[in-house]
Batch of 3 targets.
Target 1
Amino acid sequence: MRRAETGSETTDAVVTLRDVRKTYELGGVVEALAGVSLALSRGSYTAVMGPSGSGKSTLLNLIGALDVPTSGDVVVDGRQIATASEAERAAIRGTEIGFVFQTFNLLPRLTAVENVAMPLVFAGVPRDDRERRARAVLEDVGLGDRLEHLPSELSGGQRQRVAIARALAAEPALVLADEPTGNVDTETGARVLDRFDQIHAAGNTVLLVTHERHVAARAERIVHLRDGRIDHVEALDETARGSES
Amino acid sequence: MIDAREAVRIAFRSIRAHKLRSALTVLGIVIGIASVITFTTFGASVQADVLGRIGTTNANDVYVFATSSNSSGFGQVVQPVFTQHDVAQLSSVRGVRRVIPRGTIATSSIALGSTTIARRRVTATTPGTFRNRSIVAGRGFHAGANEVVLNERAVKQFGGNVSVGDSLTITFAGNRSRTMPVVGIVNGTAGQLPVSNFAGRARVYLPLHPFYRTIVRSPTLGVRQSAYPEVTVVTDPTRTRSAKRSIAAYLRKRSDAAQLKPGGTRLVARTSGDFVSQIGSVITRITRFVTGIAVIALVVGAIGIANIMLVSVSERTKEIGIMKAVGAGNRDVMSIFLLEAASLGAIGALVGIPVGLVVAFAATRYVSVAFALAPVWLGIAVAVGVLVGVVAGLYPAWRAARVNPIDALRYE
């Protein structure tokens, strides 16, 4: 896992957004993002909050290289998303970004190990290395005894831990979580958030999208979105290292 | 890029996940491939069997006969058009070793001891017609001698108990009869047109002299002389081709036969090789035609694959979205689905081949033809199975590759 350069106020940004706009043609022009600028420094933990329709999902899709902006720059670990080809964006998703979804999104016919190894398959990692790496990450999230289980044989919390392990498998520059506690009970949700704390403590850059205050409160800062713009950025404690624009 | 082994694993996992559905899809290809294999193998068997019977043992023999102008040249028109003059002229063609005229003599019956069989004609020819290898017992007759030679099939007609030295009484048309000794027994291939052997008919051979009486007037010489419906020209093996050309040229331009032949007929000179290739091409054409029909089954199978792959793509939209989110490119997704379709085709081919071979084997048994493999077609069948799968999978795979991951992840 990537280590942040501790001790120094780093300006090393994993993600940089500059005046990002995204419009959709849905029987009229809908502006989902209306000029968002944001930087995520390496090793930071940021939450994005906002009511539905505020542009959270669009922001997530852009940072996750699933979509391209209408205008503005989205740079992930030094790579421009706006000008990247479809294949390049696929590669960026595979190696730079680890997704954690609300609905886990595990492949139902694959075992835990196979699910976790999936990003490595598309990154071209040899089979033995994939398997070793997937087992190690699953052991890190406490699922060393569930390696060969199918998602249907796991509890919701366990599934989300498999999904987290999958997000970490390729040692991405950024872990991107979309309502990771949305589909588990409160107690399990708390443990999932503990897991994100650990991931962050281990030096990973985390971006978490949620509409729940108590979830967002685990981050170092909260970016509040409203109507496609950043309403305000809320720093949560002394150690917050976020840069605001 | 995904490595091939992993793509195959994913494809087979998906095939196994829907066993019945996959089996039914594969069945279409199995039927298609099996039909193609059945017909090609059966065709190859018939061809090998037929051509094997003709053989090319007398490759330097040129068969000269008249045939109907609009036929492909198998049907012989039995008319005595080749005169003694033609026979003499053909003998002097460069590269010709000897000329064996052949005709028929009308008979009514043949008797051996107390056994009498009805027989309408016997073959009259020269001693040169008997090759050593075709003589089973005794020897060929001598020209001008009162001797008879039978083939094995004719021996069978007499209950099998005819041996060299037995006396045979032949009653000719007009009730004149002659008794003569059997001097030799030959096998079925003695000097006949190669195609005649199929019938495997009984043959009784007499020397032309003194028995053959078919006389016509030679237009060239203006005298009456013997004429024969067919002539075999034995050539120098190294000159067969050029001799055949010269023979054909003579027949066309200067022969008596050219003037004597009935309207609507033409004279042909053929080697056994010509017969082999001609029959071979007819069988090949029939085989191709029937195989073409079998290919329709394959097309139906391909549609089945395309259909099921489209279903699979829409069922797995979410899965595609997940794979894309974790780094799968369009090409990865495309190759996963193409491989699945190709695997369905390949499985169909691998199952279809033995099924086709078994059916072809049964068919050859049914028509009593020796079974022969068409090994090239086995390879082609596998290739076609895979190809059919790939072609059928192209559009579904393209659809899969184009799935928008954002929409797919939202898809339930």
Note: The radius of gyration of chain B is 33 Å.
Target 2
Amino acid sequence: MEILKLFGVDWRLLLAQLINFGIVVVILWWLAIKPLTRTMRERSGEISRGLDDAKRATERLDEVEKEIKEKLQETKLVAAKILAAGKKNADEARQVSLDKTKQEVEILIVKAKQQINSEKESMVGQAKQEVVAVVLEALRKILSVGLSKDLDKKYIDQVLKDIK
Amino acid sequence: MKDKNKIRILARSIYGVIAAVGSARSQEVIANFLLYLKKHRSEHLIPSLLEELELLYFSNQGIAKVEVSAKDTLASETLEQIAKIMQKRLDKKINIKSAVDVNILGGLKIRYQDKMIDMTLDRRLQDLSQQLNH
């Protein structure tokens, strides 16, 4: 007490101030610190959840990227298979087309040969007919002029012997 | 065709009548028949009627009519030879007639009973042409 007096402190005032201070502390605690602490705790929880979410999202993103990579790989394989199958089909179709064209060309060649032979035979036949007609006409003219009565009689005698 | 049938019927009728009345009245029958033809304006049928009557006569008498065509007139011995051949072939008496056909190159044609034996050079040339063209 002496010391307090020495330093000019009134203990009653000090007590009152302490009580006031206590009241202020209680009020501050009740009205500010407690809600602030609660808000901070809630915020901290949200941040923690946000971080967890972000972590999960990152993990999910990694998984998705991995899946995408796998899908891409699968897609590449499928595309390669499709391309290979398409190439095979195209090769087969080209081969079929080539075979068909070859057959058509062979048929055309055979037909052309037949037509050429036919035309050749027709021309030869026509020429033959013309030659025969000319020869027979010449023969007819020679006979009409040159066949004497005696020769005609000999011919008639001969044919009469034949029909006996 | 109509005329041909008419000729055949008329020929058979007149032939039958003449055969029935005998030779004594045949001239009268023929005269009446000619008058009938004149009345019906059928004189143009007379040549065909004569041919038909001749055929009827030959048919009834067992005679075959043979016509021979050649480029020139055929010798009598040739005609006799043909007559013998045809008599042997048809087993009938032969009445042979020859005719000249200037269109024939050589050889001869024999016609009988709607048939023909073609032994002309024309025919030989045709056969030759067919053989050469096939």
Note: The beta strands of chain B are 63-70, 93-100, 107-112, 115-120.
Target 3
Amino acid sequence: MFPITTFHYLVVAAALFVLGVIGVLTRRNLVVVLMSLELILNAVNLNLVAFSRMWGNLHGQVFAIFITVAAAAEAAVGLGILIAFFRNKETMNADEIDLLKMVERRQHSALSQLGYILLALSEAASWFDAQIIDGALNGVSWITRAVATLSKWCDKWIIDGLGVNAPATIARLISYPIRLFECGLMQWYALVMVAALVGTACYLLEVMRWFWLTTAALAIGTIAYMLLMRRVLAKASSK
Amino acid sequence: MTPVATPFFFYLLAALTIGGGLLVITGRNAVHSALALIVTLLAVAGLYLMLYAPFVAGVQIIVYAGGIMVLFLFVIMLVHIDRSSRERRFNRMWPVGLAASCALLALFVFAFAKGKALFPDRLLTLPESSNTQQIATLLYGEAGKMGSYTFTFEIASLLLLVAIIGAVIMTRRKV
């Protein structure tokens, strides 16, 4: 067997490097991709240590140690990113990292396109129903309620107020002075009848001036009489 | 004294390295890939030993096979492994990736075939017992003098600090 030289180590390292590159380029599982990265870094380390022995100094080995440090940092941060990604997408596949992609990833089949069209149509119908139909319904009900309110006011204040309650109020207001003449005394009715007779006679004789005078005299006399009678009656009841 | 670094051991470790790498990139289950990766890393550590680099081999075993692989296995444990082990292993563009990798391999073959004569036939035998001490001298310096890589060493510690903070922030539920 010929002796092992640096060249042999370089061939092993190159094979390991190519294996790592194949893993990075073709695997879907992100954990395996990171492991392939470790393979690549190991190949580089092997090269460095082999050259270190070839030249007879230790700088290559120190470089290998620094690369190990970088590999540890890379593994920690890479696996941290991986955990965060897994928490977001529930997957470990490298070809599903598309959170920053704005376009759709997959080509849509005809069926799914039809589904999207139906989805859009149903969305439009839902919007139409919610905005137009319900809106028109609400508008009509609002107008109806406004008209009903106006009608109620009209009924309360115009029909009931001016038509019914106002004449009744006027009648009641008029009834108070008229009630004064309804004292229940026979003499009073007789007196009114006499005044009416006198008035009629005056009217027939066309001397209305006498009628008014007679009426005024009768009214004054009547009121005086009533006041007198009231006092007499009050005295009589107080005894 | 015949060294342990016989050609037989080299070919055994090289075969373990390449076979482990193949299993890593073809494994259906991510746990199997991780175990194959451990085999590869230990074989590479053996190659380091053959290259008279015991300190790097120790770092390889402790940091890679001990630390990083545990990290990988923790992540595999945290995520659902069943779903991805039932899905396709390779992405849609795998022929392109394979072709690019083959082109890279062809480049390597071409470069090595052209430059094979540049490598010396015999390898140097480095002093193994003082390896760690010499690396420490390069990293930390000696007798109050800064070493060649002291500043780089500090930068590396800063890098690790940033990586720790980044990993913690990445995995927090609410940032």
Note: Chain B has a mean pLDDT of 85.
